[in-house]
C-alpha cells in the first residue's frame, strides 16, 4: 500500500481558492498511490481564527467538490484534511447561521464521500478553535481494501482514549491531519510514536508548513509503523512524503506481541479509606 502525505505550505498571500486549485493539482499528481493525506484546515490555516467564519463552507462546498474530483481523477483514496464547515441553520446556532465545525473529509477513488469526521477535541482552552467551533461526538473509521483507517485530527493526538476507541472499532492505520505549531514539535513526534506503539498500528500524521496568523508551523509530517519505528519524516517546508506500507504488519505485530489482549477495562476509582465509616 502506497501512501502520500502532502505537507502543504499555507501562505497568507495565496488566496483560498488559488490554494484549493493548487492542492487539487498536487493530489492528481499522486495517481498510483493508494492513499493520499492532506493537513488540517489547509484552506485557511489552523491558527487563522479570524478566517474561520469568513471562509467556512457547507460540507458539500467548493473544497468538497474540488477534492472529490481530484480523488476521482487520480483514482486514490483521499483524506482531504479538514475544512471549517458551516453546518445547516437550525443545528445549534441562536443567530440563524449554522455552527462551525473542524470537519475532515475522506473520499473513495470514485470521488464519493466515504466519511466525514468532526474534530472532537478542540484546541485553544478558552479562545480560538475551542470557542469558535462545535465539538464532534462520533468516532469515525473508513474501510479500505485490505485495511481500516481510524480518523482523528491534530489536538486529538493528545487523547489516547480516542485512539483506543478507533482500534476497538477495527482501525489498523491511524490518520491524523494537523496544523501543529513549531514550538511544540517535540510533542508531535513523541505522541505520534506513542500512539503507534500503544495501539500497534500505523500512524500517518500530516502537518502544514508556513506560518498561520503569525504562528510558525512544525511541518515534519511523519509515518510510524506499529513498532514505533519512523518510516519517513518530512522537513519543515512544503513537501510530499511517500512511503510503502504493509497493512499485514499490524496483525503480525499484534500476534507477535499481544499486549492489547492484556488490557484491563472498567477499573474502579481508588478507594478513599479516610472517607469510609467504621462499623461499631
TrEMBL record:
Q: Which region ranges are annotated with the description Disordered?
A: 261-280
Domain of life where this protein originates: Bacteria
Q: Per the record, a Pfam family?
A: CN_hydrolase
CN hydrolase domain residues are 1-247
Q: Where is the signal peptide?
A: none
Q: State the similarity comment.
A: Belongs to the carbon-nitrogen hydrolase superfamily. NIT1/NIT2 family.
Q: What name does this protein carry? A: Carbon-nitrogen hydrolase
Give the organism's phylogenetic lineage. Answer: Bacteria, Bacillati, Actinomycetota, Actinomycetes, Kitasatosporales
